[in-house]
Each structure stands twice: as structure tokens, then as C-alpha cells.
Amino acid sequence: MDYILDGFAVALRLLLAGDPETFSAVWATLSSSALAMVVALCVGMPCGFALGFFSFPGRRAARLVVDTMLCFPTVVIGLLVYLLLSRRGPLADLEMLFTIPGMAVGLALLGLPIVMALTALAVEQADGRLRQTLLTLGADGWQVLTATLWEVRFHLLGAGVTAFGRIVSEVGISMMVGGNIKWHTRTITTAIALETGKGEFAVGIALGLVLLGIAFAINLMLAFLRRRARA
Fold first, then answer.
1. Whose CA, among 23, 102, 161, 205, lies 20 to 30 Å from 34?
2. Cα angle at 189 between 185 and 193, to 5 degrees?
3. Which residues contact 200 (CB under 8 A, 6 or more apart)?
4. Residue 8 to residue 6: CA distance in whole angstroms
5. What are the C-alpha distances in Å from 186 to residues 34, 62, 72, 123, 178?
6. Ordered per-residue pLDDT tens for the chain, 231 residues
7. 7 in Cβ contact with 199 (< 8 Å)
8. Do 211 and 165 form a contact (C-beta atoms < 8 A)?
9. HSE-up (13 A, CA, CB side) for residue 95
10. How far apart are the first and last CA of the chain?
11. DSSP string covering 53-115, please?
């Protein structure tokens, strides 16, 4: 038990002292996650909105594919991205393997179906009378679309926060595509796995505390959004 308490004490000293190695992993995590979120939101929200708002041939099949991708093994995503970006892969010329943008590609593929599925669900669960009322009042298609977006705005924010929480805590994709390179692509999760395996519990605990802080902030935001949505 003493070594656990000692680990927490050393971890707090590392955080308060601004240990460069520890915060290098934090920066790699936040930068790769931010890039992945930009892609996931810019692609996933319009696609998810179209999936939930419009009726078109193959809609049910598309929804089934998106829902299935929610259960896609992350290690398989990491493997596919690795093969695409590797020296013999079709995207080798981009030289993105073992880089933060390369990790962001894999993490974006992880977050994309989450954003799409939750956005589509939010739009589908919006009050159906809203569209009919707006059309009766003479609103055009653009006004109906923007009003629907405003109606589900808190749910869309919740979709983004949920995707970020899944992306920032991912380890398999970051390990395979990023390579866990010190001072470069080593993230919080990969650093925790490495340092714990080496017996360096203090660094692992310090990074774990940072990750818990991020998760706590995300959960607080989700709780706030849920209260606002119910109000």
C-alpha cells in the first residue's frame, strides 16, 4: 500500500513541477484529439443530420452501417490506418505514419460514427410537429433546417463531447499508428501503459490523474448539457 501512496505523492510533485516528459504526452494527446475532432465534427455532423432528417433510398442500410461501426474494434481501425500509411501502403507518400496527424486520422475514424449516429438520433427524436408547423407558417427548406438544428443543439454538443471522450482515452490506435515515440507521439494512454510496464508508477499515476481530470470535465459538460436539454 505504501508504494501506491508514494506513487501519488511523486505524481503530484511531477504535475506541480511541470515535468516536461509528462506534459509532452498531454500535449500530444490534446493536439491529436483536437485534429481528430475537427474532422469528425466537420464530416460526421452534416452526414448524421442528413441521415436523420432526410428520407432517401438506402437510408436504413446506411443507418445500419453507421450503428455497426460503433462496435468496430479499435485495434482493427489502427491496423487499417497503419496499412494505408505504411511504406508499402497507398498513402505512403503523405509520410504520416508515426506522426500526430497520422494518429488523428485513426482517431477521426473512431469518432466519426459516434458523431454521425448520435446526430442522426438527435434529429430523429426532435419534435416532429416542428417541421409541420414551420411549413404551415410558410417557412422554406433552409429555415426548417436551421430551426431543427437549433432545436437539437444541446444534443449535438453532447454528441461532440461523447466522441471527444472516446477519442482522448484511446490507446490501441495511438500505439499502432503513432508508434509511442517519446517527445513526439507518446500520448497519455500509451505513456501510462509503457511506464506501468516499466514499474514507473509515479509517471503513470500522474498521467492517469490528468486523464481523469479530462474525463471529469467531459462528464460535467455532459451533465450540464442534459440539464439544459430537459429544461
1. 205
2. 100
3. none
4. 5
5. 15, 36, 24, 38, 7
6. 555 666 667 667 767 777 788 788 889 998 999 999 999 999 999 999 888 888 888 888 998 899 888 888 888 999 999 999 988 888 888 889 899 999 999 999 999 999 999 999 888 877 666 666 666 666 666 776 777 777 777 788 888 888 988 898 888 899 899 988 888 888 988 888 887 787 777 777 788 888 888 878 877 877 776 776 666
7. no
8. no
9. 0
10. 46
11. H---TTHHHHHHHHHHHTT--HHHHHHHHHHHHSTTSTTGGG--TTSHHHHHHHHHHHHHHHH
Range of the structural domain that residue 180 is part of: 2-230
All three cell numbers of 133, joined, read 408547423
Residue given cell 433546417 in the structure block: 145
Sign for the CA dihedral angle at 68, 73, 77, 83 comes to: negative
Q: Can you give the CATH number for the domain in which 158 is found?
A: 1.10.3720.10
Total number of domains in the chain? 1
